């Protein structure tokens, strides 16, 4: 499967919205918007994201839109994030997309966060060189409860 990144197009947003509203994906990610079904909030978020200087990309697999990946935040505190359609989990797409994104954004350190029990996301991050450097606990809207998370750092 060929994985590629490209700038976000308007036509990607309905796909991202559908992906964000998959119940299993939400539970796995845990730390999500308060109300993922709020289309107005979703549109406002993506308008801000696309107007910012952050690096946000659409993830393609064999030409199909399968998710997004981004580096965002203030210098010295920038984080990576990604979302891959659940139908494509376990195929190496997130790892390939994150590697491409990291090649595009050479600044370090970079940080990432994941629910402590999200082994798939932790594995992706660790394959890309991130190491667990801290643990935290926060309210996960998708789970409706306090949830353990890990903070990972890519130093070089």
End-to-end CA span: 28 Å
User: Low-confidence runs (pLDDT<50, min 5 residues)?
Assistant: none
Give the helix/strand class.
alpha+beta
Q: Name the helicity range.
A: 25-40%
Helix tally? 5
Percent in strands: 25-35%
Q: How large, in whole angstroms, is the Cα Rg?
A: 15 Å
Average pLDDT number: 97
Question: Biggest sheet: strands, sense, closure?
Answer: 4 strands, antiparallel
- Strand order within the widest beta sheet: 1-2-3-4
Overall spatial form: globular
Order of helices and strands: EHHHEEEHEHEE
What's the total number of strands? 7
Fold blueprint:
Elements: E1 3-7, H1 13-20, H2 23-29, H3 39-51, E2 55-61, E3 64-72, E4 79-84, H4 93-104, E5 110-115, H5 119-127, E6 131-140, E7 145-154
Antiparallel strand pairs: 1-2, 2-3, 3-4, 5-7, 6-7
What does this protein structure show overall?
The protein is of the alpha+beta class and 156 residues long. The protein contains 5 helices and 7 strands. It has a 4-stranded antiparallel β-sheet with strand order 1-2-3-4, sandwiched between helices. It is globular, with a radius of gyration of 15 Å. It starts with a strand and ends with a strand.
Structure characteristics:
alpha+beta, 3-stranded antiparallel beta sheet, 5 helices
What is the compact description of this entry?
The protein is α+β, with helices and mostly antiparallel strands. It is 31% helix and 34% strand.
